[in-house]
Amino acid sequence: MKQKDPLLARLAQRSHNVMTLLVMVLVVLLVQFWLLSIALEEFMAAQNRLALPTFLVSVGCLIINLWLLKYLYDIDRNGESK
Questions:
Q1: Torsional class of 23: left (φ above 0), alpha (ψ -120 to 50), beta (otherwise)
Q2: How far lies 12's CA from each of 9, 19, 77, in Å?
Q3: CA 51/CA 47 separation, integer angstroms
Q4: Which helix (H) or strand (E) holds 63?
Q5: pLDDT means over runs of 10, the chain (82 residues)
Q6: I need a surface site. Which of 18, 57, 61, 73 has the fewest CB within 10 A?
């Protein structure tokens, strides 16, 4: 039975984690663009009923994306020191 190299196993796990984070960032970004387009359409039509709530949720998506990208940066920075 062949044993896996611990370094390769750690790199494979790290690669999987990074790809998962990037997919999450992409999904949140697509939702954010969708919400922002709804907010702009409502604002341009002078109907402010949905403009403010969708804009606020879009800002929430921005905060989530920034947090995920910071977490990704932390993973990369911690991986280089090992």
A1: alpha
A2: 5, 11, 17
A3: 7
A4: helix 51-81
A5: 76 86 90 86 84 85 90 78 52
A6: 73
